[in-house]
Write a structure and sequence with these properties.
Layout (H helix, E strand, L loop, with lengths): L14 H12 L2 H13 L3 H29 L3 H9 L4 H33 L10 H9 L2 H20 L2 H28 L4 H9 L8 H15 L5 H6 L8 H29 L10 H11 L4 H35 L3 H21 L14 H28 L1 H9 L13 H9 L1 H15 L1
The structure holds tryptophan.
Length: 452
């Protein structure tokens, strides 16, 4: 820990700036790429209900806990957990930094897809009606000569924004572009639900069939909630460490969770009805958005134009998320090892890019190489979203709920109302969720999954 840097630690310029940056972290490929396909694979509406229940109980509570840890400690996840809880708790910080690195590696691959798709859309070939979008996608992901350079471009962009530092880079990028993405998602969802044949997709997304719910559904919903909210690895701790004490953490978390859920719902409405309208299979897996959305663009005037704009905005949403994966790693290296921002950002980004190459290849030439029946990209996804993030969240809940509760109560009370340090109304419910339901539910889901 480097105490001297703390007084000078850069902070968000405004309250809106922080909410936009944190929402920028949450809203990303997790909402538009991951959510619709895992919902599709797990029965649609039943999954949606379980997902929403997790988000608005455990998810928001753990997000508040992470922000409070970060703000109280004013440092990176490793330093923060060590400062507040002692040496052993720093393990939670290290787990997070490792998870951030692993997620960043495969996230870069998918983000590269969106960049390539923006170009394919611009060329007009993809949005032509009758184009075989499934075949286009299969050919594209299997071609490393396209996917690896696209991932490289995306990583360079991520590094460039993180180099700009917290305020200069992260905050400004989020403020402008987030609202645009929401607008275009609304337009897409509106078109998708009015496509002929969309009704079956709407029923799939909104009428639950709980007979299909099993332990796997719960594990997947839990992992999706953590992934989508950017919790479980200290990204929110890192962002919280740039937060001033006159800001209301609970309020900020409410906005972030609300915007993230809205984005996922809009993506669901844009994609799932269109899946059925186009006669595609909701269980098509990770390619679902890339296969489905071009069919929606083919059905609207100026489809190529809107399609290009959409994939550019999605790449930008991915960028405001990927920077929140790189930033905790860089903050750790700066705060704990006294390294400099520029070389460390480049080194960490380059290393994550190197690890992204096997992920990219796992959908093409290396498709035959599997562990536990999964290729490398799927494996990293399952390891992080399915195990590391929930374990991280479990530890955050126990840490805040049982180990440093009084300190954290004071932290969430700072910046509330007139600023007299009264605990906010939700404080006791929050602490109770962290103490009991969160650890029990997460441990139970992880254990039943491990034993299944
Ligand atoms: N939440 C982002 C998304 O939905 C991904 C992400 C960014 C993330 N930072 C994170 C996931 C930290 C887990 C932890 O696309």
């Amino acid at each position: 820990m480097n105490g001297k840097t703390h007084q000078r630690r850069e902070h968000w310029a405004s309250r809106l700036g922080f909410v936009m940056a944190a929402a920028g972290s949450a809203v990303g490929l997790g909402n538009v790429w991951r959510f619709p396909y895992v919902a599709g694979e797990n029965g649609g509406a039943a999954f949606l209900i379980i997902y929403l229940a997790i988000v608005f109980t455990l998810g928001i509570s753990i997000m508040i806990a992470e922000l409070a840890i970060g703000r109280a400690a004013q440092t990176n996840p490793v330093g923060a957990t060590r400062l507040l809880g002692g040496r052993a708790w720093a393990g939670l910080g290290y787990l997070g930094v490792l998870a951030a690195f692993l997620i960043l590696s495969f996230y870069t691959v998918i983000a590269g897809w969106t960049l390539s798709y923006a170009m394919k859309m611009a060329s007009g070939a993809l949005s032509r009606s009758g184009a075989d979008t499934a075949q286009t996608f299969a050919g594209f992901v299997a071609d490393p000569a396209q996917t690896i350079p696209a991932a490289a471009v995306f990583m360079v962009l991520t590094i460039a924004v993180v180099l700009g530092g917290v305020k200069g880079g992260i905050e400004r990028a989020s403020m402008v572009l987030m609202p645009l993405l929401f607008l275009i998602l609304v337009a897409l969802a509106t078109r998708a639900v009015t496509l002929p044949g969309a009704g079956a997709g709407l029923r799939f997304f909104l009428t639950p069939d709980f007979s299909k719910v099993g332990v796997a559904t719960l594990t997947t919903a839990l992992g999706q909630a953590f992934f989508s909210l950017s919790i479980g690895l200290g990204a929110m701790m890192t962002y919280g460490s740039y937060l001033d004490r006159d800001q209301n953490i609970g309020h900020a978390a409410g906005w972030v969770v609300g915007l993230d859920t809205l984005a996922a719902m809009l993506a669901g409405f844009a994609i799932l009805p269109a899946v059925f309208a186009a006669g595609l299979n909701p269980e098509a897996g990770p390619g679902l958005a890339f296969v489905t959305l071009p069919t929606v663009f083919a059905s609207i005037p100026l489809g190529a134009l809107f399609g290009t704009l959409f994939f550019v905005l999605l790449a930008i949403a991915a960028l405001t998320s990927s920077i929140s994966l790189l930033e905790p790693i860089v903050a750790y290296l700066i705060d704990e090892h006294g390294m400099r921002r520029v070389p460390m950002t480049i080194a960490a980004g380059a290393a994550a890019f190197l690890l992204s190459i096997p992920s990219a290849l796992s959908l093409g030439p290396w498709a035959g190489f599997t562990v536990f029946g999964k290729g490398i990209l799927d494996l990293l996804d399952a390891l992080t979203a399915g195990i590391m993030l929930p374990v991280g969240g479990l530890l955050v809940a126990i840490f805040v709920g049982w180990v440093i509760a009084p300190r954290m109560m004071a932290e969430i009370s700072a910046g509330v109302g007139a600023g007299h340090g009264q605990p906010p109304r939700f404080a006791r419910l929050w602490l109770w969720i962290l103490r009991l339901p969160a650890p029990v539910a997460i441990a139970w889901i992880l254990l039943s999954w491990a034993m299944a």
